[in-house]
Amino acid sequence: MLKKIIILVFITCFACFNTLFAAESGGMPQLNPEFWISQIFWLIITFGILFIILTKVILPKISDNLETRKSQILENIETADKQKEESQKKINEYEKIILDSKIKAKNYFNEAREKILEDINKKRNTLEKELDEEISSVENELSEFRNKSGEKINKIAAETSAELIKELIGEEVNSSSIAAIVEDQAKLNQERKNVV
Amino acid sequence: MASNPMYQFNVYRIGPEIKLGSVDISFTNASLFMVISSLAILIIFNLGAKKKTLIPDKLQLLSELSYSFVAKMISDTAGSKAKPYFSFIFSLFMFVLFCNMFGMIPYAFTVTSHIIVTFVLAAFIFVGVTIIGFMKHGLGYLKLFVPSGVPMVLLPLIVVIEIISYLSRPISLSVRLFANMMAGHTMMKVFGGFVISLGIVGGWLPLSFSVALTGLEILVAFLQAYVFAILTCIYLNDALNLHH
Asked: Chain B: residue nearest A36 by CA?
């Protein structure tokens, strides 16, 4: 479209100026074959030389340069990758060492703790045993005492009741019968207590 | 007659008349600008290729960018098979580009505004591409004129059209470049002439047009070189990878 417009404008302008300068113009100089051969000759010479020098000398250099740049950049990227890998390895090693030492420290701590706990348990166990023994012996004594205390109370109750009766009535009562009564009473009391 | 807008396209002899037998091969202003363009290309790219630094300087960057630009253009349009023709297409693109660009300098001669120059380039490309096509595919290259999937009734017509379009390639290629360059330079000359004839009062409008046209023409100079090179790649693609 643009080309058409340009060519149209050109043609109209050309027509105008052809009429304006009709005196001299002999049409387009391009169509004058006087120097055609010369132009072809020099075109072939210059373009040929240009083509040969570009092909043989300059373009290989440029492509070489581009290639070396490319390969250099690739190499650099490769070495950078390698170094990155190495540093990653080192970091991993370092982290492993730290982790190991942490685990070791934890193990030490745990061992020490277990030892102490064992110790404590042992001591506690022995202590508890002793305590248990003490408590059982005391309990035995207590129960023995309690068992004996019933008889003594009965005895005392019989004696006191015999003396009470002697004071009140002025007469001696058979101590064995009193003892039997007291025993009965104590049993009754015991039963009542049990019922309650 | 300097005010004739076509005057700038005149070819005249520089120096003595050189005759090869009966043919005149004198050195002309057209030859001069061909030599200047080629020398400029050689100097710039030689300087750009000389230093081999990892971080390129300006000229090196320029040459390397042009290299990869043309390389990408070729691989995009013609594929990897066209790699052997890289240096030719690179030279062609640079030659046309520099001739166009040198033509933008005032009082300079535009080599590519001459139909004979562009036609020789296009004809060379046409003949070269045809030879490559026949060498690669033998007579099978004629399949280019028979597109697949066309109904039998239309086939004779299509074949004729394809042959005509194929044969008109050098003409369209050369005329496109030549007409664009000539039209642009003529228009600039015409507007420049208006600036003078309208004087200080009315000359500003054509002057601003001239400025705008200069920018447009620089764009066209690049674009036409690009189009010339990319059409060469497309023709080469047809010859290398038979698509039809």
From this structure: B116
Q: Which of A14, A17, A51 sits opposite B91 (nearest CB)?
A: A51
Confidence of residue A11 (pLDDT cuts 50, 70, 90): low
Is the Cβ–Cβ distance between B230 and B73 less than 8 Å?
Answer: yes
CB contact (8 A) between residue A24 and residue B94: no
Tally of CA atoms within 13 A in the half-sphere of B15 that contains its CB: 11
Is the residue at B2 inside a domain? no
What is the rounded (10 degree) CA torsion for A18, A19, A20, A24? 60
B1 domain residue, yes or no: no
Give the structural domain span for B140.
7-240
Neighbouring-strand partners of residue B13: B28
**B86 lies within 8 A of chain A by CB:** yes
Question: How many CB atoms neighbour CB B43 within 10 A?
Answer: 11
Question: Which residue matches tokens 């045993």?
Answer: A129
Terminal C-alpha separation, chain A: 126
Domain total in chain B: 1
- Distance separating alpha carbons of residues A51 and B128, to the nearest angstrom: 15
pLDDT tens for residues B130-188? 999 999 888 888 888 888 888 888 888 999 999 999 999 999 999 999 999 999 999 99
Could you list the mean pLDDT of each consecutive 10-residue stretch along chain B, which spans 244 residues? Answer: 74 84 86 94 91 82 93 92 92 96 92 93 95 90 85 89 93 94 91 87 89 94 95 92 72
Name the β-bridge partners of B24. Answer: B19
Spans of all domains in chain A: 48-190
- Nearest Cβ partner of B52 from A7, A54, A65? A65
Distance from CA of B243 to the nearest CA of A (A): 29
Nearest-angstrom CA–CA distance, B189 and B196: 11
B165 within 8 A of B112, measured Cβ to Cβ = no
Q: HSE (CB half, 13 Å, CA atoms) of B145?
A: 16
Please report residues of B whose CB lies closer than 8 A to that of A24: 1, 4
- Smallest Cα distance from A59 to chain B, Å: 7
Q: ipTM score here? A: 0.90
List of chain A residues whose C-beta atoms are within 8 Å of the C-beta of residue B187: 6, 9-10, 13
Contact between A43 and B48 using a beta-carbon 8 Å cutoff? no
Residue B171 lies in a domain: yes
Residue B152 C-alpha, separation from nearest chain A C-alpha, in angstroms: 35
- Report d(CA B95, CA B124) in Å as an integer: 15
